[in-house]
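G., the chain you wanted modeled:
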Amino acid sequence: MSSNNAHNFTADSLRGWTILCMAMVLLVTMGANAFSLEEPAGKPRPLDLPSGGGVSDDDEEDAPETIVFYGNDYEGDAFFWCLDKSGSMDWGGAMEDLKQEVTSSINSLSTEAEFSIVAFSTNTVTWSPMPKRASSAHKASAIAWINTLVPDGWTCLSPAAITTLQICNQSNKPGRQLLILSDGVPTCDGLNTAATALAEITSANWQQVPIHTIYINDDSEGINFMQSLASQNFGTFYIFDN
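Predicted structure as tokens:
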């Protein structure tokens, strides 16, 4: 082989090796870049679900609870009382019993519950015109308010029940419950208003909140009224016999 041919072979070989080396470097670089795009081993991908199994605070907040009122259980997450304070509630210690029952029920509420209280006789009085969270301060305030009630006047139920519904309707809780307690037939200024009260209260309950009635007397007319009021408004009737 001549010196020229040997020189050409050497130059060609060097160029070939150079090209091969560059190709190998390029392949290694591409592989390294591709590897860097992969998720590190053991690192989980982020999920759209909230932590803790997907249970939000709202789910926990809306959990129902049970109160006991005059020996009967009521389950919900917001409770609204409409209470008789007419003159006849002074008989046989009925008002003192009422104060104890309401106090016990309010104290049993968790801080997640909402509530308010309305009382009626000739006039309507309200503890809070809007639902209140059952904090310690609000419960203490409501109990102090209940203890100021003095029995007097007629049994003018309808305005008070409608006021209670208006307060109840401001709550966003799914398990709202309205409780009406009385010891007599709705009578205002000497007139029996039972038929009018039944129609007005049922018409005002356009959100179809369960209205539970508790009757602390044994006359048939009052029992029939309270039964009708509960049955027409998705609630229960309970007669308390002490």
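Confidence is low (pLDDT under 50) at residues 1-11, 25-29, 31-60.

Shout if anything looks off.
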